[in-house]
Design brief:
Elements: H1 5-40, H2 50-57, E1 62-68, E2 71-79, E3 89-94, E4 100-106
Antiparallel strand pairs: 1-2, 2-3, 3-4
Length: 112
């Protein structure tokens, strides 16, 4: 039994790591669901600050600089953590000083 001690230890670590991944994905899914609900219920209002958004909903999948009517903006993309292509999406637009200007939802469209 002792000769397999290293392998057993590795398997235990792998199991613990897998559980941590599952918990992280559940947390990310819950955060996205809160964000989607808040967007649907008009709780994302212009003037909210970026640090508060990040604290409430976590880090976005992608952050991009984009040009807007009033100058440079930052666009944050949120989507479901495991649905890379077939996912609802939310885009948040921040002005250069870090205040939310608008939010757009892009529901996944079912293809017939």
């Amino acid at each position: 039994m002792l000769e397999y001690g290293d392998q057993i230890s590795t398997l235990r670590q792998l199991g613990a790591s897998q559980r941590q991944i599952e918990l992280t994905l559940l947390e990310q899914e819950a955060a996205f669901n809160r964000l989607w609900a808040d967007a649907a219920n008009n709780k994302l209002v212009p003037g909210m600050i970026k640090p508060d958004i990040l604290a409430a909903y976590g880090e976005p999948v992608i952050t991009q600089d984009v040009s807007g009517v009033n100058g440079k903006k930052e666009r944050l993309l949120y989507r479901r953590p495991t649905a890379y292509f077939n996912s609802d999406k939310i885009y948040l637009y921040f002005n250069a000083t870090g205040f939310l200007e608008s939010a757009e939802t892009d529901p996944m469209r079912q293809k017939i």
